[in-house]
Design a protein that fits this description.
It is built from 20 helices and no strands. The protein is mostly helical. It has one domain. α8 runs antiparallel to α9, α9 runs parallel beside α12 and α15 packs across α16. The chain is elongated, with a radius of gyration of 26 Å. The chain starts with a helix and ends with a helix.
C-alpha cells in the first residue's frame, strides 16, 4: 500500500472515530436531556467513548495476535472476528466489574463534593488517554487496567493525599503486575515442551497427534469453560469455583469424546509432517481466541466506563436516575467503542504480538491462548487481578525463550558430539547424528545414554558448557522489543498517576 493510500485510510479511520464520538454526545443528550444535559456530562461521555477506542486499539488485539502471527486467519478477518466477541462480552457481561474502577482504588466517600469527584475522574481519564495514545503510536502493548488505576490513584492523591488510596487493593494489583506474565510464560513454555515431546518429536507425528490432540482439546475446553464461568458471565450467572470446575470438567470430557473420532480419522489421512500437524490446531485456536475476546470485553469495559458512571452518579445524586439504566447506557458505549478501536487502530499492536516478539505457528499459538486462561484461573484463586495484556505478552515471551533453550541445547549437543569424535571416522559421526535427528524423543535419550557410557569425554565441565552456550546462543525473542515492552510496563502506573495529578491541578 502506497503512502497516499495509507494516508487516505488513516484519514477515513479518524473520521469514523470522530463520528462515533459525536454520536456518543448526541445520544447522551437525547437520553438524558430531562435530567442532566450539562456540557460537562456530555464531555465525560465523549471522553469515555474515546477511552473505549484506545482500549480497543491497544489492548483488544492481544488475544488475536497469535492467530494472525501463526497465519490461522488474516489480519482484517481476525479484527472483525474479535470485534464481535469483544462487543458481546462488554455488553452482556460487563456490568459486574465497573464498581472496582469507580470505588475500589480510592475512597471516593472522602471526597468533599460531586465537583471534586468529577474533576478527579476527568483527570484520570485524560491521563489514561494520553498514555494509551503514546503506547499505541509506538506499537507497545501496555495494560489499560494499570493505566486507569494509575490515573485514579494520581487524581485521588491530588485530592486528599495518600490516605485516600486503598493501598491493599493497589498492592494486589502490583503483585499481579509481576505474577501474571511470569506464570503465563512458564505455563506456555511447559505446554510447548509437552506438545513437542508427545507429538512433534515422535517418529509418526500424525498418529501421535491423533492420540494427544483430543486430550489437549478437552483440556482447553475445560479451562476455557471454567474461565468463562468464573470471569466472563458472573454478571448473569454467579457460580462458585467448585461448581465451575465440576461443570467445566463435564464439558471438557464431552468435547474430548465428540472430537476424538474425527481427529483420529483426520490424522490417519495426514502426511507425517510438522506443517500438517500444525493445521490440526486451527479450529481450537479460533474457539480459544473468540472466548478470550469475550472475557476481555466483559472485564476491560470498566476501564472506559467506570469513571464516566462515577461522574454521572455524583452529578445526579439527587435525581431519580436508575443505576441500572446508567450502566446499560455506559456498557453500550464500551460495546461499540472497544471493537471499533480494534478495527480502526489495532493493526500495529496485533503485529507486535503476532510477529515482532517471536515467530509463531499454530502449536505455539495454541499454547499461548491456553496458558492465558490457566493463569487467570490461578490468579483468581489467590484474589489477584491480572492484566490480559501482561498475561498474553508474557506467554509469547515464554514461547520464545523456550525455543531459544531447546535450539541452543540441541546445537551444543551436536557440537559436543563432533568435537569429541573429531579423530573418528567422520562418516560414522554424521551417520550417528542423522540417526539421532530422525529418532523419537525416547530413542534420542537411549542413544545418548549409550554414547555417554561408551565415551566419558561427553561429560562437559561447567566451563566448557558455558563457552558453548555463548557460542551457540540462539535468540528467538527480539531483545529490543522485549526491553521496550518491559520498560513501558514498569512506568505505566507511575506515569499515568503523575499525569493525572498534574491535570487535576490544572483543572483546579
Amino acid at each position: 500500500m502506497s503512502k497516499t493510500e495509507n494516508s487516505a485510510v488513516t484519514a477515513a479511520n479518524h473520521l469514523l472515530a470522530l463520528l462515533f464520538l459525536g454520536a456518543v454526545g448526541i445520544i447522551y443528550h437525547y437520553l438524558y436531556s430531562s435530567l442532566d444535559n450539562s456540557l460537562l456530562m456530555i464531555a465525560a461521555a465523549v471522553l469515555g467513548g474515546y477511552l473505549a477506542l484506545n482500549i480497543g486499539a491497544n489492548d483488544a488485539g492481544n488475544n488475536i495476535g497469535p492467530l494472525v502471527g501463526s497465519a490461522v486467519i488474516g489480519l482484517t478477518a481476525a479484527m472483525l472476528f474479535a470485534a464481535v466477541f469483544e462487543a458481546a462480552g462488554a455488553y452482556l457481561a460487563g456490568g459486574e466489574v465497573i464498581s472496582t474502577i469507580k470505588k475500589g482504588i480510592v475512597d471516593t466517600d472522602r471526597f468533599s463534593d460531586a465537583e471534586t469527584i468529577t474533576r478527579a475522574m476527568f483527570s484520570a481519564m485524560i491521563a489514561t488517554a494520553i498514555w494509551l495514545n503514546l503506547a499505541t503510536l509506538t506499537g507497545t502493548p501496555v495494560s489499560t487496567t494499570h493505566t486507569i488505576v494509575g490515573g485514579v490513584v494520581g487524581a485521588g492523591i491530588a485530592v486528599g493525599g495518600v490516605d485516600v488510596v486503598n493501598w491493599d487493593t493497589l498492592a494486589t494489583i502490583t503483585v499481579s503486575w509481576f505474577f501474571s506474565p511470569v506464570i503465563s510464560g512458564i505455563i506456555a513454555a511447559l505446554l510447548l515442551y509437552l506438545v513437542k515431546r508427545t507429538i512433534t518429536y515422535q517418529e509418526d507425528m500424525s498418529r501421535a497427534a491423533g492420540r494427544v490432540l483430543p486430550l489437549l482439546v478437552g483440556f482447553m475446553a475445560w479451562s476455557f469453560s471454567t474461565y468463562l464461568m468464573i470471569k466472563g458471565v458472573k454478571a448473569s450467572w454467579r457460580v462458585d469455583t467448585l461448581t465451575a470446575l465440576i461443570c467445566s470438567f463435564a464439558i471438557g470430557l464431552g468435547v474430548y469424546m465428540v472430537t476424538k473420532p474425527s481427529i483420529v480419522q483426520r490424522t490417519a489421512l495426514l502426511p507425517n509432517t510438522k506443517s500438517a500437524v500444525n493445521r490440526l490446531f486451527n479450529i481450537p485456536l479460533l474457539f480459544g481466541a473468540g472466548l478470550l475476546s469475550f472475557a476481555h470485553g466483559s472485564n476491560d469495559v470498566a476501564n472506559a466506563i467506570g469513571p464516566v458512571i462515577a461522574i454521572k452518579e455524583a452529578m445526579t445524586a439527587t435525581a431519580q436516575t436508575s443505576p441500572a439504566h446508567i450502566s446499560h447506557w455506559g456498557l453500550l458505549i464500551g460495546a461499540v467503542g472497544i471493537p471499533m478501536g480494534l478495527v480502526l487502530y489495532g493493526r500495529r499492536l496485533i503485529k507486535t504480538i503476532g510477529s515482532e516478539i517471536t515467530e509463531l505457528d499454530q502449536v505455539r499459538a495454541f499454547c499461548i491462548v491456553t496458558s492465558v486462561t490457566i493463569t487467570v484461573l490461578l490468579a483468581s484463586q489467590f484474589g489477584l487481578p491480572v492484566s490480559s495484556t501482561h498475561t498474553a505478552v508474557g506467554a509469547v515471551f515464554g514461547i520464545g525463550f523456550m525455543r531459544e533453550i531447546l535450539k541452543t541445547n540441541y546445537a551444543i549437543l551436536l557440537e559436543t558430539l563432533r568435537r569429541h569424535h573429531q579423530h573418528h571416522d567422520q562418516e560414522q559421526v554424521e551417520a550417528f547424528i542423522t540417526q539421532f535427528d530422525n529418532a523419537t524423543f525416547n530413542d534420542k535419550g537411549r542413544l545418548l545414554a549409550e554414547l555417554d557410557r561408551s565415551d566419558s569425554r561427553l561429560k562437559l565441565s561447567k566451563k566448557e558448557r558455558g563457552s558453548l552456550q555463548k557460542l551457540y546462543s540462539y535468540e528467538f525473542v527480539k531483545r529490543t522489543t522485549f526491553l521496550r515492552i518491559l520498560m513501558a510496563w514498569v512506568v505505566t502506573l507511575p506515569v499515568s498517576a503523575v499525569l493525572a495529578s498534574l491535570i487535576f491541578v490544572l483543572l483546579d
